[in-house]
Write a structure and sequence with these properties.
It catalyses: acetyl-CoA + phosphate = acetyl phosphate + CoA. This protein is an alpha/beta fold. It folds into two domains: 2-141 and 303-336, Rossmann fold (3-Layer(aba) Sandwich), CATH 3.40.50; 150-293, Rossmann fold (3-Layer(aba) Sandwich). The chain is built from 15 helices and eleven strands. The strands form two sheets. A six-stranded mixed sheet has the order 8-7-9-6-5-10, with helices on both faces. Strands 3-2-1-4-11 form a five-stranded parallel sheet, sandwiched between helices. Helix 1 (2-13) crosses helix 14, helix 5 crosses helix 6 and helix 7 packs parallel to helix 8 (129-140). The protein is globular. The two termini are 30 Å apart.
């Protein structure tokens, strides 16, 4: 909980506007009200104003400080239509097309972020990750040089001797099923950059495999070895190693036996998994068997902050991700350039 409180404290220093496309969801409504009460964010809820007001009344919640926009009404707003037109820059654009697209809350929320009305978007309580990604890629877009969006989890364990006093970052445990070597590099470098800004760590990046230092010969190992080599070429300033087995990446005694010289082996704080199977299984096992606390998935690679919720997310999960999204926006120069 200490890490979450730290994010909340940082968010309170400079709260930002955060848009929630699923504003009619009871959990979102409660989290938005708490965000205002705690001074973490200025929430925008998207949805039917009457339905949201009635639900708030039934829950005995005050909507003071919470702004509501109805995409079915706001989609006709010339400001948003014209801004969307400047994004598309194609001959097939028409106001009717824009209206139809912006009636969808995920698209409207993404446009609010892109045009600077909000610093970030949080969705996924009632929509699959694929829908959140689709709207974000269409309207917010990917950062220059990044070919794929990805995600990471912050894992807070009780094993204080690993990572950063027990805290580790797992990537990518939510988005890319079977990334290529080149895509693993994108995932690793984007994660390292975000971890440095968000957590203040010196990244020590381990590309994980079932092999350590080419001891096994297999195409799956080759993929990881190539990814580590490419990552070192693209970011020679980062501490990167691979292929490494999980124990060699985390435990100094094992690293000494398996790896000759490495500034990462036995000390890794960022673990890059070879595919979604490995990453997703690992984070859930650590979460439930080791009683670890997880924060995420935290989406990355987009021009501006977007985050995805589990559809089983609780109010406190949403509030925590709100604080993280605000902190990311505080660090985001793209957002600062919008004048908000």
């Amino acid at each position: 909980m200490f890490l979450l409180e730290e994010f909340k404290d940082r968010a309170k220093r400079n709260p930002k506007a955060i848009v929630f496309p699923e504003g009619e969801d009871e959990r979102i409504l409660k989290a938005a009200v708490k965000a205002v009460r705690e001074g973490i964010a200025f929430p925008y809820l998207l949805g039917d104003k009457d339905k949201i007001a009635l639900k708030a009344k039934d829950l005995n919640l005050s909507l003071d400080g919470v702004k509501i926009k109805d995409p079915k009404v706001e989609c006709k707003n010339e400001k948003y239509i014209n801004f969307y037109h400047t994004l598309r820059k194609d001959s097939f654009f028409s106001p009717k097309m824009a209206e139809a697209l912006l009636r969808k809350p995920l698209n409207f929320g993404a446009l609010m972020v892109r045009c600077g009305d909000a610093a970030g978007m949080i969705a996924g309580a009632a929509n699959p990750t694929s829908s959140v990604l689709k709207s974000s890629m269409l309207i917010i877009g990917l950062q220059k040089g990044i070919k794929i969006p990805s995600s990471f989890f912050i894992m807070v364990t009780k094993k204080t001797e690993v990572g950063e006093k027990g805290t580790l970052v797992f990537a990518d445990a939510a988005v890319n099923p079977d990334p290529t070597s080149e895509e693993l590099v994108d995932i690793a470098l984007t994660t390292a950059n975000n971890v440095k800004k968000l957590l203040g760590w010196q990244p020590r990046v381990a590309f994980l495999s079932f092999s350590t230092k080419k001891r096994a010969s297999h195409p799956l190992v080759d993929k990881v070895i190539r990814a580590a080599e490419l990552a070192r070429q693209r970011a020679p300033y980062l501490l990167i190693d691979g292929d490494l087995q999980a124990d060699a990446a985390l435990i100094p005694e094992v690293a000494k036996r398996k790896v000759k010289e490495s500034k990462v082996a036995g000390r890794a704080n960022i673990l890059i998994f070879p595919n979604l199977d490995a990453a997703n299984i690992a984070y859930k096992l650590v979460q439930y068997l080791a009683d670890a606390t997880s924060y995420g998935p935290i989406l990355q690679g987009f021009n501006l902050p977007v985050n995805d919720l589990s559809r089983g997310a609780k109010v406190e999960d949403i509030l925590g991700l709100t604080a993280i999204t605000v902190v990311r926006a505080q660090e985001d120069k793209n957002y600062e350039n919008t004048g908000n």
